[in-house]
Amino acid sequence: RSAALLSIEAMKDEDSVAVIGFDDTSFTVIALKPVSEVKGIAEQRLRNLTAFGKTDLLPALAEARRQLTR
User: Fold this and answer.
1) How far apart are CA 11 and CA 22, in angstroms?
2) Less packed terminus of the chain by CB within 10 Å, N or C?
3) Can you give the pTM of this predicted structure?
4) Per-residue confidence band for 24, with pLDDT thresholds at 50, 70 and 90
5) For residues 2 and 6, what is the distance between their CA atoms, to the nearest angstrom?
6) What is the CA radius of gyration of the chain?
7) How far is residue 45 CA from its own chain's centroid?
């Protein structure tokens, strides 16, 4: 969470960012948007993430690819 938040803070406002969470399924934490639209909500959304120990990464990667190809 901290690394994701620091990464978003270091990006330029015109860059795009998305955050995909995953456990046994994937879910969108922050949809793909310009950083300028995300900075205000990023901390709250990332702080709400909780690790449950499951790591099914493939669906999260598929969701990231889907968002990038739209």
Assistant:
1) 23
2) C
3) 0.75
4) confident
5) 6
6) 12
7) 9
Residues 21/66, Cβ–Cβ less than 8 Å: no
> From the centroid of its chain, how far is CA 42?
9
From the CB of residue 21, how many other CB atoms can be counted at a distance below 10 Å?
19
Long-range pairs, 55-58, Cβ under 8 A, ≥24: 55/22, 55/23, 56/22, 56/23, 56/24, 56/25, 56/26, 57/22
Instruction: Dig out the tokens for 48 from the structure.
Output: 């709400």
pLDDT over threshold 90, residue 23:
no
Handedness of CA 41, 47, 52, 55 (dihedral sign): positive
Q: CA-CA distance, 32 to 70, in Å (whole number)?
A: 10
Q: Where are the alpha helices (DSSP H) in 1-56?
A: 2-10, 35-47
